[in-house]
Amino acid sequence: MEEATINFLHLCDAANIDSLGKISILGIFGKIFIPDLASTLVKFTIVLSLTIKDIDTAGKWVRIKIFGPDSEELRTQEPIAVDLEAERVILEKGREVNLFLDITNFKFRQFGEHVLKVYFNGEEIGDQTFIVAEGNK
Length: 137
Description:
Layout: E1 4-17, E2 23-29, E3 31-34, E4 40-52, E5 61-67, E6 73-74, E7 80-83, H1 88-92, E8 96-107, E9 112-120, E10 123-134
Parallel strand pairs: 3-10
Antiparallel strand pairs: 1-2, 1-4, 4-8, 5-6, 5-7, 5-9, 9-10
């Protein structure tokens, strides 16, 4: 039985949330253009909304991994992970958890289809494919 389900998962330019919980997402995309493989993508944001079935689930870790066309994981300087137990205040507001993760200076090794995978407590709960293409668009 899944402990969490994804409500939505987006790659975008930026996102924020107001004091009433309303989410604003700027520039959702499914294709990233970079001039060449020597370039880094200065910034993109991952927006993830989860529904957690049991607030008291032990070891509440959300991890995000990015895989290239060759199915190899692309490493970031720091793991893309959130310890929800450490952020207990997030869970006290209810079962829906919204996470905004800014990824900076990311280097892609190949052009082609990439996959963003989401894990909750070590179990893959969903993914989003996107394309990395050559260009300045």
